[in-house]
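Task 17 of the worksheet. Students: predict the tertiary structure of the chain below and write it out as structure tokens. Keep your answer in the requested format; marks are given for formatting as well as content.
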Amino acid sequence: MEERGHEVVVTSRDFAQTIGLLDRYGIPHRPMGAHGGGGLRGKARAMGSRSSQLAKMVRGEHFDLAVAHGSTDQPLVARLARIPQVTMFDYEFAAAMHHSNGRLATRVLVPDAIPERALARYGIRSPKLIRYPGLKEEYYLADYPPDPGVAGELGLDPGKVIVVLRPPPEVTLYHRGASTDLFAQVVDHLEAHADTVQVVALPRIDSQREALRERGVLVPEFAVDGPGLIAASDLVISAGGTMNREAVALGVPAYSPFAGRLGAVDARLIEEGRLHRLEDPADLALVRRERSATPPMRDPDLLVDLILGAAETGRAGRRRRSNTMDAR
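Model answer:
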């Protein structure tokens, strides 16, 4: 967007590795509150705080477009400020989020694996809904090669099978109450193979970080280039979605022990054999993978065009309202 001459303002919140990654990549950002934790009350307070800060920011500056992936705050603030807003997501069962952001957004972008009928209950239909081909990861990784220095940065053992581990999203609403027993079994299984396997974990919260360190797992003290770590690994086990899909995009074997409801994107990847649904730790192939060429990526300009198109949609809507008022 900046290469096209647009001015971009990035907002952030203090959760997991977000701030550290933005700083690592040299992306200027404006912090807007923090995560609310796992409880509904805490989430509500955090949402109110972030929304208030966003509203204050947009009142003081002129914005032509707002864009977010899976935000509950931005669509509401943008609607109140009459700013066209693009909502993106790739998991259709986060109902609490989509019932609000889907109705408030000017345009909704999702992977084409998600059928339109799955989103109708949220009030998301064409022409507001646009389904793009492939995975979002295939677009944003296309012009950002993984950092080849991550293996040395972390001191990975080239003689061992490198496993990247991502714990379950225990603080997300769509995962509340889901069992983490399988993930615990996976950790036990990997620990039993510690002589041939090195595990690198990217925890989401402090309690996960401490628990994994106690099990002899390598937990980086700083934000790590995720794609670089994946490219240096032999397999990825992630109970969330994005890291698995980054592995798929980079051609690295990926396993999902996710205990929640399986989304259409992951269901398609499993059907295509590009992602494995993990139900028994013994099914893990703890072997060195063959390094081969990265699978073909997609043109990021396609998503940029779809995003920026919402600004024109917003301008057209404002012209129609103006003409209607003039006619009256």
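Marker's comment: The first strand starts at residue 11 and ends at 14. The CA atoms of residues 41 and 105 lie 25 Å apart.
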